[in-house]
Design brief:
- The structure holds two protein chains of two kinds.
- Chain A is built from 25 helices and 47 strands.
- By secondary structure, chain A is α/β, with parallel strands linked by helices.
- Chain A has seven domains: 80 residues, Alpha-Beta Plaits (2-Layer Sandwich); 165 residues, 3-Layer(bba) Sandwich (FAD/NAD(P)-binding domain), CATH 3.50.50.60; 66 residues, no CATH class; 128 residues, 3-Layer(aba) Sandwich (Rossmann fold); 180 residues, FAD/NAD(P)-binding domain, CATH 3.50.50; 155 residues, FAD/NAD(P)-binding domain (3-Layer(bba) Sandwich), CATH 3.50.50; 59 residues, 2-Layer Sandwich (Alpha-Beta Plaits), CATH 3.30.70.
- In chain A, the strands form 16 sheets. A five-stranded parallel sheet of chain A has the order 10-17-11-12-13. In chain A, strands 27-26-25-31-42 form a five-stranded parallel sheet, covered by helices on one side.
- In chain A, 46% of the residues are buried.
- In chain B, strand 1, helix 2 and strand 2 form a beta-alpha-beta unit.
- Chain B is 41% helix and 16% strand.
- Chain B is built from two helices and four strands; from the N terminus they run H-E-H-E-E-E.
- The chains are: A alpha/beta, B alpha+beta.
- Chains A and B meet through strand 1, strand 2, strand 7, strand 8 and helix 4 of A and helix 1, strand 1, helix 2, strand 2 and strand 3 of B.
Chain lengths: 954, 76
């Protein structure tokens, strides 16, 4: 990992790129700095904090942010020494000699086989247009500024304050589409795709901060198109004091005394209104990353019209230069899950390209053989860390070391300036050997970050890693008791005494190495399943592809073109032939899964298909079963053949059905079967699908009258350009409200021809409209596949409230399930476009390869174990286990619970349910925990208190 | 056959020396959420990765966000 580093030059070709890097001087020796931040305290320079959007001040030497990786300081250009050769205080206070003010930029050459470009995006700068008044009015902030204001590590420690008077704003307005959806100088024509929903998030969080806050959102369509977004939108709307206005507002003035900001907007009911707000948040969109043109030249890739990377719709991770891939927001304005799976997808494609050299450069660690010390008396060593000044300034560390030496079983104790420094860790290893230690306690910080490091230190010394115990005397002590030094020192003694007591009870535990079957199973042979299968197979793994129908292709068999003009049938045909020609892909048609058993790395799935009954062994499973389409019951569908779904319309346009292409007038109705109580989600693709059909029809018959009745037009991202194009070409967009939906009846037009009469309210004109339609097309909802529930049960995975498969984490793990070894891609996850599906299916393949390219998976040693004698076989534990790790089995002594240690995640839920204490989580057994509690208060102290209480009673 | 073995050994030796030098399999440019994910995946799948970030820390814009929608999970 090379931070604070720029790429200067790139030469060569796929498989062999020579890259020149420029490492900027941090003025800090990376290997010496421990991130103790004493230098920051003493630095006299205050300078706007870039991380906090320049709202608050930081020092010239500082850590970029509290959770930075690497967690070390750097010195920026505001340093007095760098500017005027003065000061050097930081050098004097650093106890680890980590400051080096003479550092120079260093050039470094590296050689790599492939490159992934993931430079992200640049938030839109509202200063480019004066009318936003950003930088002019003090209480106009961007959404990025507001994000920092909300955050507890932000400029005001989590308080939302106004710049003008540092008071809490109670009446806040958000203005949407700042820099997006506008063809003006400095603006972007596209929709930035995330602002609607992040604004709702900011509103909800603002209400958490201040329940009485009034929040107003000025928008042009609320684009809640993503998974669970519609419910989130509803949640925001239902909060008290929230108003949504569909209006283009303008910021008109700032009150010279109060610095409140006045906004002018209009509503159909009241006309133009001016209203004053305490604070105005500009919901800024996404621009291409800074310097993207230079970057394009440097790497030799092309840009598209909005200056994002030009990509191939059949493979959005490819650039035009072989060996250079693109992931994240350089593809266009996308949200976090897309950034994550396009990254995994780009990774998978590099895996395909560099398969021949996989593993060659990886280094394997070799540890000394483990000594069995379980029969020895505990010999505990305690290492007390100063953490620079973080602990040492509050807790008397030398005194604490002396105290440790008095504790039972402690045979060695010492202090360390930074226990986590490489030399300190080595010192621990050496002391274990020299002093014959068999248990180690490090009294320092939270185990969350450093426990793995210290466990490793024990392994280096040949001791079981579970003989390690961490006493947190920083977060739990010195940081929270800064003004109570004596009490803090006493508390440190208490914490360490408890840790030592527990350390003596610890058991050595073994981690499990499980072999991994190198084959994969992909369920579903649509675009998602086929792409995923191919990418896995191209990396040398056998793939079994299960398709329920006679033919591969899925829903894509019914789609002919995309909005961007991709020939879908040609594309699908190409995919199918690649699948059939691939020697490592085995296809099963008319297939049905009858049984699925096993666990990560070792699944067995039974399939009945055209090949008969097959029992397939595989290490990974991918679920890509796609979706079904809703069959409308509304608007005379099924009763009148002039009413079609949008997919049927597309088929008829493609086959040049005269009834459709020759129609005088065509009405499309959006949101049929979703965004309602029964299906409370947006099907995401229908707005663009309808606009695509409208444009195709306008190509064939420019005179046709086309009306689209919509609720919100959700053409997010670059699709916004097609919405604009459709409007320019005369497609009429008319909004309706769900309470007042359009009404469809057979009737006659003025020219006496038979038509369908569509009646709807026009909210702009404020009156009823009657449209004559020859054809009506319904944007029928995308619904979960009928097989979803069965497949979910078979693979022990869960569903979201809307009935689609539920991923492990909506943002960070979008292509895997909480169940290890099972992955997800395509529409089964949620409706999405073909391009998004391709990104996601490569992404799933990338994640599958992180499993299949290893020979073993390691399962933790800290898992549950059952004492069979105590187990009554009641099954209470089996019911609460989220991971299906527990099972009741018949034995000679009756039913007993059995733990599958591979599936157990060690959450301990079952322990609390067990009536006899038969099931215990190893490393957290009752004995280990109670002996820790027992030493909190010494026995005689307890007796004294009991006596005192008895005396008081008497 | 012996030649093949010695060739294999040579390759292994070569790889060892390359591992010590400035040779990698992949360079990932940008240490935001996308770059981090790509690097982790590739490293887990057996490749040596250089993750290059221009800022002093990895994390990108996501590290500046307070929470993420629609679950309001902490962004850190």
């Amino acid at each position: 990992m090379l931070t604070y580093t720029e790429v200067e030059n790139v030469e060569g070709e796929a498989g062999n790129f020579n890259v020149t890097l420029l490492r900027k001087p941090r003025y800090i020796k990376e290997d010496k700095c421990t991130g103790c931040t004493v230098c920051v305290e003493y630095c006299p320079v205050k300078y706007p904090d870039q991380y906090n959007q320049d709202i608050s001040l930081n020092k010239a030497v500082h850590v970029y942010f509290a959770q930075a990786i690497p967690l070390i300081t750097y010195i920026d250009e505001s340093c007095l020494y760098l500017k005027e050769k003065k000061c050097r205080i930081c050098e004097a206070v650093c106890k680890n000699d980590a400051i080096d003010l003479n550092q120079q930029p260093v050039k470094e050459d590296i050689n790599v086989g492939a490159i992934i470009l993931a430079p992200g995006f640049e938030p839109f700068d509202p200063k480019v247009r004066e009318e936003y008044r950003y930088g002019e009015f003090q209480n106009v902030v961007t959404s990025m500024d507001f994000e920092r204001l909300l955050c507890s590590t932000g400029p005001y420690a989590g308080e939302i304050l106004r710049k003008s008077d540092l008071k809490h704003p109670h009446n806040i307005a958000w203005i949407q589409c700042i820099g997006s959806r506008q063809v003006i100088e400095g603006g972007n024509s596209y929709c930035s795709a995330v602002c609607c929903t992040y604004t709702q998030k900011q509103v909800i969080l603002t209400k958490d901060h201040d329940a009485d806050a009034k929040c107003t959102i000025f928008h042009n369509d609320v684009r809640a198109y993503g998974k669970d977004f519609e419910r989130y939108y509803e949640r925001t709307q239902n909060l008290p004091g929230i108003r949504f206005f569909r209006s283009y507002p303008s910021i008109v003035k700032e009150d010279p005394v109060t610095h409140n900001v006045t906004i002018r907007y209009s509503t159909p009911e009241d006309g133009v209104i001016e209203e004053e707000f305490d604070m105005v948040v500009l919901s800024i969109g996404m621009n291409p990353p800074k310097g993207v043109e230079d970057m394009a030249k440097q790497y030799g890739f092309e840009l598209e019209e909005h200056d994002f990377c030009k990509i191939d719709p059949r493979n959005p991770m490819l650039t035009n230069r072989p060996g250079i891939f693109v992931s994240g927001a350089l593809q266009g304005p996308i949200d976090i899950p897309e950034s994550v799976f396009s990254a995994s997808g780009a990774g998978s494609q590099i895996g395909e390209m560099l398969q021949y050299r996989r593993g060659n450069l990886a280094k394997e660690r070799i540890y000394p053989e483990e000594k069995d010390v379980s029969q020895e008396e505990p010999r505990v060593g305690v290492f007390v860390c100063h953490c620079g000044a973080n602990i040492g300034r509050i807790v008397n560390v030398p005194g604490t070391v002396e105290y440790c030496k008095t504790l039972p079983n402690v045979v060695y104790a010492q202090e360390q300036l930074f226990s986590c420094a490489t030399n300190s860790a080595r010192e621990i290893t050496d002391k274990i050997k020299e002093e014959g230690l068999n248990r180690v306690v490090v009294a320092a910080c939270s185990p969350r970050t450093l426990e793995p490091l210290f466990r490793d230190t024990l392994r280096e010394a040949g001791i079981n890693q579970y003989y390690y115990e961490m006493a947190n005397i920083r977060e739990h002590n010195s940081w929270v008791h800064q003004k109570e030094k004596e009490e803090a020192t006493e508390k440190a003694h208490d914490i360490i005494r408890m840790s030592v007591a527990r350390a003596c009870q610890l058991e050595p535990l073994q981690e499990f190495d499980l072999p991994v079957d190198k084959r994969a199973l992909v369920v579903g042979g649509g675009i998602a399943g086929m792409n995923c299968a191919l990418s896995i197979a191209n990396q040398g793994h056998e793939v079994h592809l299960i398709e329920r129908e006679k033919e591969l292709g899925g829903i894509a068999n019914r789609i002919h073109t995309t909005l961007q003009g991709l020939d879908v049938q040609e594309y699908v045909k190409d995919l199918k032939s690649k699948i059939y020609q691939h020697p490592l892909v085995h296809v099963y048609h008319n297939a049905k899964i009858t049984e699925a058993t096993g666990y990560v790395g070792n699944f067995v799935t039974t399939v009945e298909s055209n090949k008969g009954t097959s029992s397939i062994k595989h290490g990974a499973s991918v679920i890509a079963i796609g979706i079904d389409m809703y069959t409308p019951t509304e608007y005379l569908y099924g009763q009148d053949e002039r009413v079609l779904t949008h997919l049927e319309l597309e088929e008829k346009i493609t086959s040049d059905d005269e009834k459709v292409t020759g129609a005088q007038s065509l009405v499309m109705i959006q949101c049929v079967g979703c965004r309602n109580e029964e299906r409370n989600y947006c099907s995401r693709i229908c707005c663009s699908e309808s606009i695509k059909n409208a444009l195709l029809l306008k190509d064939k018959n420019p005179d046709m009258d086309i009306y689209i009745l919509f609720r919100d037009v959700r053409t997010y991202g670059f699709n916004e350009d097609y919405y604009r194009l459709a409007a320019e070409r005369g497609v009429k967009f008319i909004r309706y409200e769900p309470e007042d939906p359009p009404v469809v009846e057979p009737g006659k037009a003025e020219d006496k021809r038979d038509v369908l009469k569509v009646t709807a309210t026009d909210y702009i004109l404020g009156k009823k409209l009657e449209l004559d339609a020859d054809i009506i097309a319904l944007a029928a909802a995308v619904v979960p596949s009928a097989a979803t529930k069965e497949v979910a049960n078979q693979f022990k995975v869960t569903l979201s409230p809307d009935g689609f498969f539920k991923e492990a984490h909506v943002k960070l793990r979008p292509v895997e399930f909480a169940t290890d070894g099972v992955y997800l891609c395509g529409l089964a996850h949620y409706p999405k476009f073909i391009q998004e599906t391709i990104n996601q299916s490569y992404g799933a393949a990338g994640r599958v390869l992180t499993l299949l390219s290893n020979d073993i998976v390691v399962a933790s040693g800290s898992v549950c174990a059952v004492n069979e004698k105590q187990c009554m076989g009641c099954g209470a534990c089996v019911e609460v286990c989220t991971y299906g790790a527990l099972e009741l089995k018949e034995t000679k002594q009756g039913k007993k619970c059995v733990v599958n240690p591979v599936l157990c995640k060690g959450d301990g839920l079952c322990n609390t349910k067990c009536p006899t204490g038969a099931i215990q989580l190893r490393h957290y057994t009752d004995t280990e925990l109670t002996c820790e509690i027992d030493v909190v208060v010494p026995d005689d102290e307890i007796m004294k208190q009991i006596d005192a209480a008895a005396a008081a009673d008497a | 056959m012996e030649n093949v073995i010695s060739l294999n050994e040579n390759i292994k030796e070569l790889c060892k020396s390359r591992a010590a030098g400035n040779f990698g399999d992949v360079m990932v440019v940008g240490g935001g959420i996308s770059g981090i994910q790509a690097s982790l995946d590739l490293a887990t799948a057996g490749f040596r990765v250089y993750l290059v970030e221009k800022a002093p820390s990895i994390g990108g814009h996501m590290a500046q966000l307070d929470k993420t929608f629609p679950t309001n999970d902490c962004s850190m």
